[in-house]
Amino acid sequence: MLSQKFKNSKLYDNLINASLSKDDGLNPEQLSHLSLTILKLTCKWRRYKLVANALDRVASEFQRKDLRLGQNLFGCYFTNPIGLAAGFDKNGVTAGILDRFGFGFAELGTVTWHSQLGNCRPRLLRLSFEKAALNKMGFNNQGAQIVKSNLESQNLNKKGSRPAILGINLGKSKITALDWAYYDYASSLELLAPLLDYGVINVSSPNTPGLRTLQSVDQLKALLIRLRELPIRIPILVKIAPDLRNEDIDNIAKLAYNEGLAGIIAVNTSLDRLALKGRYLTQMGCKITKEFGGLSGEPIADRALEVIKRLRGAGDLTIPLIGVGGISSPRTAWERISAGASLIQIYTGWIYQGPLLVPKILEGLQSQLDRHGLSKLSDVVGSNMPWI
Fold this sequence. Notes:
The chain is α/β, with parallel strands linked by helices. It contains twelve helices and 15 strands. It has one domain: Aldolase class I (TIM Barrel, Alpha-Beta Barrel). The protein has an eight-stranded parallel barrel, surrounded by five helices. Strands 5-6-13 form a three-stranded antiparallel beta sheet, with no helix packed on it. Strands 1-2 form a two-stranded antiparallel ribbon. It is globular and about 50 Å long.
Protein backbone atom coordinates (compact mmCIF):
# COMPACT_ATOMS: atom_id res chain seq x y z
CA MET A 1 0.00 0.00 0.00
CA LEU A 2 2.71 2.45 0.94
CA SER A 3 4.69 2.02 -2.25
CA GLN A 4 1.62 2.79 -4.35
CA LYS A 5 0.29 5.58 -2.19
CA PHE A 6 3.59 7.43 -1.91
CA LYS A 7 5.35 6.62 -5.19
CA ASN A 8 5.26 10.32 -6.12
CA SER A 9 5.90 11.65 -2.62
CA LYS A 10 9.58 12.67 -2.86
CA LEU A 11 9.47 16.12 -1.25
CA TYR A 12 10.87 15.05 2.10
CA ASP A 13 13.61 12.94 0.50
CA ASN A 14 14.67 15.68 -1.89
CA LEU A 15 14.57 18.65 0.48
CA ILE A 16 15.34 17.25 3.91
CA ASN A 17 17.07 13.87 3.76
CA ALA A 18 20.08 15.27 1.90
CA SER A 19 20.76 17.48 4.91
CA LEU A 20 20.03 14.75 7.46
CA SER A 21 22.58 12.45 5.83
CA LYS A 22 25.50 14.35 7.34
CA ASP A 23 26.25 15.70 10.79
CA ASP A 24 27.01 19.22 9.64
CA GLY A 25 24.09 19.68 7.27
CA LEU A 26 21.40 22.27 7.90
CA ASN A 27 21.40 23.32 11.54
CA PRO A 28 19.01 20.87 13.24
CA GLU A 29 17.53 23.41 15.62
CA GLN A 30 16.91 25.90 12.82
CA LEU A 31 15.40 23.16 10.67
CA SER A 32 13.11 22.13 13.50
CA HIS A 33 12.12 25.76 14.08
CA LEU A 34 11.29 26.20 10.39
CA SER A 35 9.13 23.06 10.35
CA LEU A 36 7.34 24.14 13.50
CA THR A 37 6.70 27.63 12.13
CA ILE A 38 5.11 26.20 8.98
CA LEU A 39 2.93 23.85 11.02
CA LYS A 40 2.00 26.67 13.42
CA LEU A 41 0.72 28.82 10.55
CA THR A 42 -1.07 25.83 9.03
CA CYS A 43 -2.77 25.17 12.36
CA LYS A 44 -3.76 28.82 12.70
CA TRP A 45 -5.34 28.86 9.23
CA ARG A 46 -6.66 25.28 9.28
CA ARG A 47 -10.31 26.30 8.96
CA TYR A 48 -9.78 28.28 5.75
CA LYS A 49 -10.96 26.26 2.77
CA LEU A 50 -7.67 25.96 0.90
CA VAL A 51 -5.74 24.96 4.03
CA ALA A 52 -8.52 22.65 5.19
CA ASN A 53 -8.49 20.87 1.83
CA ALA A 54 -4.72 20.51 1.96
CA LEU A 55 -4.94 19.04 5.47
CA ASP A 56 -7.60 16.60 4.29
CA ARG A 57 -5.17 15.37 1.63
CA VAL A 58 -2.44 15.05 4.26
CA ALA A 59 -4.79 13.01 6.45
CA SER A 60 -5.72 10.72 3.56
CA GLU A 61 -2.02 9.93 3.06
CA PHE A 62 -0.89 9.48 6.64
CA GLN A 63 -3.87 8.24 8.64
CA ARG A 64 -4.75 4.56 8.94
CA LYS A 65 -8.12 3.97 10.55
CA ASP A 66 -8.51 0.51 12.05
CA LEU A 67 -10.66 -0.26 15.09
CA ARG A 68 -8.26 -3.06 16.01
CA LEU A 69 -5.63 -0.46 16.89
CA GLY A 70 -7.85 1.46 19.32
CA GLN A 71 -7.48 1.23 23.12
CA ASN A 72 -9.12 2.73 26.18
CA LEU A 73 -6.43 3.71 28.67
CA PHE A 74 -6.69 5.84 31.82
CA GLY A 75 -10.02 7.27 30.70
CA CYS A 76 -8.86 8.21 27.19
CA TYR A 77 -9.65 6.52 23.90
CA PHE A 78 -6.60 6.25 21.65
CA THR A 79 -7.50 5.55 18.01
CA ASN A 80 -4.02 4.10 17.47
CA PRO A 81 -0.95 3.58 19.66
CA ILE A 82 1.48 5.99 17.97
CA GLY A 83 2.16 9.31 19.66
CA LEU A 84 4.44 12.24 18.97
CA ALA A 85 6.84 12.50 21.90
CA ALA A 86 7.40 15.68 23.88
CA GLY A 87 10.14 17.95 22.58
CA PHE A 88 8.86 18.86 19.13
CA ASP A 89 6.06 21.29 19.99
CA LYS A 90 7.15 22.81 23.28
CA ASN A 91 4.59 25.64 23.20
CA GLY A 92 1.47 23.84 21.99
CA VAL A 93 1.16 25.74 18.70
CA THR A 94 0.33 22.72 16.48
CA ALA A 95 -2.12 20.87 18.71
CA GLY A 96 -5.02 21.28 16.29
CA ILE A 97 -3.48 19.44 13.34
CA LEU A 98 -1.14 16.71 14.60
CA ASP A 99 -3.80 14.03 14.14
CA ARG A 100 -3.66 14.72 10.37
CA PHE A 101 -0.21 13.14 10.28
CA GLY A 102 -1.61 9.86 11.58
CA PHE A 103 -0.84 10.22 15.29
CA GLY A 104 -3.25 8.72 17.78
CA PHE A 105 -1.94 11.13 20.41
CA ALA A 106 0.59 13.89 20.85
CA GLU A 107 2.49 15.11 23.88
CA LEU A 108 3.20 18.84 24.02
CA GLY A 109 6.05 20.44 25.94
CA THR A 110 8.17 20.20 27.93
CA VAL A 111 6.53 23.21 29.59
CA THR A 112 7.81 24.97 32.70
CA TRP A 113 6.01 27.48 34.90
CA HIS A 114 8.51 30.23 34.07
CA SER A 115 9.47 30.95 30.49
CA GLN A 116 13.10 30.15 29.80
CA LEU A 117 15.53 30.44 26.91
CA GLY A 118 17.25 27.13 27.50
CA ASN A 119 20.95 26.36 27.24
CA CYS A 120 23.49 28.06 25.00
CA ARG A 121 23.73 27.12 21.32
CA PRO A 122 24.65 24.86 19.67
CA ARG A 123 22.41 22.63 21.77
CA LEU A 124 21.03 20.09 19.30
CA LEU A 125 23.58 17.94 17.48
CA ARG A 126 22.88 15.49 14.68
CA LEU A 127 24.54 12.06 14.57
CA SER A 128 23.47 11.15 11.07
CA PHE A 129 25.08 7.74 10.59
CA GLU A 130 23.58 6.44 13.84
CA LYS A 131 20.16 8.10 13.19
CA ALA A 132 20.55 9.80 16.56
CA ALA A 133 20.75 13.20 18.20
CA LEU A 134 22.44 14.79 21.19
CA ASN A 135 19.95 17.10 22.88
CA LYS A 136 21.05 19.70 25.41
CA MET A 137 18.19 22.15 24.86
CA GLY A 138 17.34 22.81 28.51
CA PHE A 139 13.53 23.06 28.50
CA ASN A 140 13.41 26.15 26.27
CA ASN A 141 9.75 27.22 26.19
CA GLN A 142 7.52 30.26 26.63
CA GLY A 143 6.09 29.20 29.99
CA ALA A 144 2.78 27.71 31.07
CA GLN A 145 0.71 30.87 30.78
CA ILE A 146 1.67 31.48 27.13
CA VAL A 147 1.07 27.81 26.34
CA LYS A 148 -2.42 28.15 27.82
CA SER A 149 -3.10 31.13 25.52
CA ASN A 150 -1.74 29.21 22.53
CA LEU A 151 -4.07 26.30 23.18
CA GLU A 152 -7.11 28.47 23.84
CA SER A 153 -6.57 30.40 20.61
CA GLN A 154 -6.89 27.18 18.59
CA ASN A 155 -10.46 26.46 19.76
CA LEU A 156 -9.70 22.76 20.12
CA ASN A 157 -12.44 20.18 20.31
CA LYS A 158 -13.51 19.33 23.83
CA LYS A 159 -12.10 16.35 25.65
CA GLY A 160 -13.65 13.12 24.43
CA SER A 161 -14.32 14.48 20.95
CA ARG A 162 -10.77 15.09 19.74
CA PRO A 163 -9.35 13.13 16.81
CA ALA A 164 -6.12 12.66 18.80
CA ILE A 165 -5.47 12.63 22.53
CA LEU A 166 -3.39 15.57 23.78
CA GLY A 167 -0.99 15.35 26.69
CA ILE A 168 1.27 17.91 28.33
CA ASN A 169 4.79 17.21 29.55
CA LEU A 170 5.76 19.37 32.54
CA GLY A 171 9.21 20.18 33.86
CA LYS A 172 10.76 22.21 36.65
CA SER A 173 11.94 25.70 35.81
CA LYS A 174 15.70 26.10 36.04
CA ILE A 175 15.39 29.07 38.42
CA THR A 176 13.18 27.10 40.82
CA ALA A 177 15.04 25.40 43.66
CA LEU A 178 14.54 21.66 44.00
CA ASP A 179 12.87 22.17 47.38
CA TRP A 180 10.20 24.23 45.59
CA ALA A 181 9.76 21.90 42.63
CA TYR A 182 6.25 20.91 43.75
CA TYR A 183 4.96 24.46 43.38
CA ASP A 184 6.41 24.69 39.88
CA TYR A 185 4.77 21.46 38.70
CA ALA A 186 1.54 22.17 40.56
CA SER A 187 1.13 25.67 39.14
CA SER A 188 1.58 24.46 35.54
CA LEU A 189 -0.64 21.44 36.08
CA GLU A 190 -3.53 23.40 37.57
CA LEU A 191 -3.35 25.99 34.80
CA LEU A 192 -3.19 23.58 31.85
CA ALA A 193 -5.15 20.55 33.03
CA PRO A 194 -8.56 21.85 31.88
CA LEU A 195 -7.29 22.02 28.28
CA LEU A 196 -5.61 18.62 28.00
CA ASP A 197 -6.27 14.90 28.33
CA TYR A 198 -3.33 13.84 30.48
CA GLY A 199 -0.29 15.28 32.23
CA VAL A 200 3.28 14.02 32.52
CA ILE A 201 5.67 14.82 35.35
CA ASN A 202 9.10 14.94 33.75
CA VAL A 203 11.75 14.23 36.36
CA SER A 204 14.23 12.68 33.95
CA SER A 205 15.63 15.32 31.61
CA PRO A 206 19.43 15.44 31.89
CA ASN A 207 19.56 19.13 30.95
CA THR A 208 18.14 20.79 34.08
CA PRO A 209 20.64 20.66 36.96
CA GLY A 210 19.53 18.37 39.78
CA LEU A 211 16.23 17.38 38.15
CA ARG A 212 16.97 13.67 38.02
CA THR A 213 17.35 13.54 41.79
CA LEU A 214 13.54 13.78 41.89
CA GLN A 215 13.47 10.22 40.52
CA SER A 216 14.58 8.86 43.89
CA VAL A 217 11.67 6.97 45.39
CA ASP A 218 11.40 9.14 48.49
CA GLN A 219 11.43 12.45 46.62
CA LEU A 220 9.17 11.21 43.84
CA LYS A 221 6.68 9.82 46.33
CA ALA A 222 6.52 13.10 48.24
CA LEU A 223 6.00 14.99 44.98
CA LEU A 224 3.27 12.68 43.70
CA ILE A 225 1.37 12.65 47.00
CA ARG A 226 1.12 16.44 46.94
CA LEU A 227 0.22 16.61 43.25
CA ARG A 228 -2.52 14.05 43.77
CA GLU A 229 -4.22 16.46 46.16
CA LEU A 230 -4.69 19.09 43.44
CA PRO A 231 -8.26 19.75 42.29
CA ILE A 232 -7.64 18.48 38.76
CA ARG A 233 -9.38 15.85 36.70
CA ILE A 234 -6.77 14.47 34.33
CA PRO A 235 -4.63 11.33 34.65
CA ILE A 236 -1.01 11.87 35.69
CA LEU A 237 1.96 9.89 34.40
CA VAL A 238 5.67 10.09 35.17
CA LYS A 239 8.55 9.98 32.66
CA ILE A 240 11.74 8.22 33.71
CA ALA A 241 15.32 8.03 32.47
CA PRO A 242 16.98 5.02 30.83
CA ASP A 243 20.02 5.40 33.06
CA LEU A 244 18.33 4.26 36.28
CA ARG A 245 19.57 1.13 38.01
CA ASN A 246 17.29 -1.87 37.56
CA GLU A 247 16.33 -1.91 41.24
CA ASP A 248 15.33 1.75 41.02
CA ILE A 249 13.13 0.94 38.03
CA ASP A 250 11.43 -1.78 40.06
CA ASN A 251 10.84 0.62 42.93
CA ILE A 252 9.41 3.33 40.69
CA ALA A 253 7.04 0.81 39.10
CA LYS A 254 5.74 -0.19 42.52
CA LEU A 255 5.52 3.42 43.64
CA ALA A 256 3.55 4.41 40.56
CA TYR A 257 1.12 1.57 41.12
CA ASN A 258 0.71 2.25 44.84
CA GLU A 259 0.24 5.99 44.35
CA GLY A 260 -2.36 5.58 41.64
CA LEU A 261 -0.43 7.01 38.73
CA ALA A 262 -2.08 6.54 35.35
CA GLY A 263 1.10 5.24 33.76
CA ILE A 264 4.85 5.47 33.19
CA ILE A 265 6.64 6.81 30.12
CA ALA A 266 9.94 5.05 29.46
CA VAL A 267 12.36 6.45 28.51
CA ASN A 268 13.83 9.94 28.28
CA THR A 269 17.18 10.67 26.62
CA SER A 270 20.32 9.00 27.94
CA LEU A 271 23.48 10.33 29.55
CA ASP A 272 25.16 7.04 28.71
CA ARG A 273 27.01 7.22 25.38
CA LEU A 274 26.55 3.45 25.00
CA ALA A 275 28.52 2.16 21.99
CA LEU A 276 29.32 5.70 20.81
CA LYS A 277 32.00 6.60 23.36
CA GLY A 278 34.61 7.05 20.63
CA ARG A 279 32.27 9.03 18.36
CA TYR A 280 33.79 12.32 17.17
CA LEU A 281 31.47 15.32 16.87
CA THR A 282 32.63 17.39 13.90
CA GLN A 283 30.30 20.22 14.94
CA MET A 284 32.03 20.60 18.31
CA GLY A 285 35.54 19.38 17.51
CA CYS A 286 35.58 16.78 20.29
CA LYS A 287 34.41 13.30 21.24
CA ILE A 288 30.82 12.82 22.34
CA THR A 289 31.99 11.94 25.85
CA LYS A 290 33.12 15.56 26.27
CA GLU A 291 29.62 16.93 25.62
CA PHE A 292 26.73 16.96 28.07
CA GLY A 293 23.14 16.37 27.02
CA GLY A 294 20.84 13.47 26.32
CA LEU A 295 21.30 10.90 23.57
CA SER A 296 18.20 9.94 21.58
CA GLY A 297 17.43 7.81 18.55
CA GLU A 298 18.38 4.31 17.49
CA PRO A 299 21.40 3.85 19.84
CA ILE A 300 19.15 3.85 22.92
CA ALA A 301 16.57 1.41 21.51
CA ASP A 302 17.95 -1.69 23.27
CA ARG A 303 18.06 -0.04 26.68
CA ALA A 304 14.61 1.46 26.20
CA LEU A 305 13.25 -2.00 25.42
CA GLU A 306 14.97 -3.42 28.52
CA VAL A 307 13.34 -0.78 30.72
CA ILE A 308 9.85 -1.59 29.38
CA LYS A 309 10.44 -5.28 30.06
CA ARG A 310 11.68 -4.44 33.55
CA LEU A 311 8.66 -2.27 34.32
CA ARG A 312 6.25 -4.88 33.02
CA GLY A 313 7.90 -7.58 35.10
CA ALA A 314 7.99 -5.58 38.35
CA GLY A 315 5.48 -7.53 40.40
CA ASP A 316 3.20 -8.20 37.40
CA LEU A 317 1.77 -4.71 37.71
CA THR A 318 -0.95 -3.64 35.30
CA ILE A 319 -0.15 0.07 35.09
CA PRO A 320 -0.09 1.28 31.45
CA LEU A 321 3.32 1.92 29.93
CA ILE A 322 4.28 4.22 27.06
CA GLY A 323 7.44 3.17 25.25
CA VAL A 324 9.71 5.75 23.66
CA GLY A 325 13.33 5.79 22.56
CA GLY A 326 14.78 4.53 19.29
CA ILE A 327 11.51 3.40 17.72
CA SER A 328 12.14 3.78 14.00
CA SER A 329 10.39 0.88 12.26
CA PRO A 330 7.26 -1.28 12.45
CA ARG A 331 9.31 -4.06 14.01
CA THR A 332 10.74 -1.93 16.84
CA ALA A 333 7.23 -0.64 17.53
CA TRP A 334 5.81 -4.15 17.67
CA GLU A 335 8.62 -5.37 19.93
CA ARG A 336 8.04 -2.49 22.37
CA ILE A 337 4.31 -3.26 22.54
CA SER A 338 4.88 -7.00 22.83
CA ALA A 339 7.29 -6.29 25.70
CA GLY A 340 4.62 -4.41 27.64
CA ALA A 341 4.01 -0.93 26.24
CA SER A 342 0.37 -0.12 25.53
CA LEU A 343 1.40 2.95 23.55
CA ILE A 344 4.57 4.15 21.85
CA GLN A 345 6.02 7.56 21.01
CA ILE A 346 8.36 8.66 18.26
CA TYR A 347 10.39 11.79 17.62
CA THR A 348 13.99 11.33 16.43
CA GLY A 349 12.94 8.57 14.02
CA TRP A 350 10.15 10.82 12.71
CA ILE A 351 12.70 13.55 12.00
CA TYR A 352 15.05 11.24 10.10
CA GLN A 353 12.43 9.27 8.18
CA GLY A 354 9.79 11.94 7.78
CA PRO A 355 6.00 11.68 8.19
CA LEU A 356 5.89 8.36 6.28
CA LEU A 357 7.15 6.63 9.43
CA VAL A 358 3.71 6.84 11.06
CA PRO A 359 1.73 5.00 8.34
CA LYS A 360 4.62 2.55 7.92
CA ILE A 361 4.36 1.58 11.58
CA LEU A 362 0.57 1.44 11.53
CA GLU A 363 0.55 -0.80 8.47
CA GLY A 364 3.21 -2.98 10.05
CA LEU A 365 1.09 -3.42 13.18
CA GLN A 366 -1.96 -4.24 11.05
CA SER A 367 0.04 -6.86 9.17
CA GLN A 368 1.27 -8.48 12.38
CA LEU A 369 -2.26 -8.64 13.78
CA ASP A 370 -3.30 -10.43 10.60
CA ARG A 371 -0.40 -12.87 10.78
CA HIS A 372 -1.04 -13.68 14.43
CA GLY A 373 -4.79 -13.93 13.87
CA LEU A 374 -5.59 -11.26 16.47
CA SER A 375 -8.62 -8.99 16.58
CA LYS A 376 -7.15 -6.22 18.75
CA LEU A 377 -3.78 -4.70 19.56
CA SER A 378 -4.37 -4.82 23.30
CA ASP A 379 -3.93 -8.62 23.11
CA VAL A 380 -0.31 -8.02 22.09
CA VAL A 381 0.63 -5.82 25.07
CA GLY A 382 3.07 -7.73 27.29
CA SER A 383 2.49 -10.98 25.37
CA ASN A 384 6.08 -11.38 24.11
CA MET A 385 4.67 -12.31 20.71
CA PRO A 386 7.46 -12.30 18.13
CA TRP A 387 7.62 -10.30 14.93
CA ILE A 388 6.79 -12.70 12.11
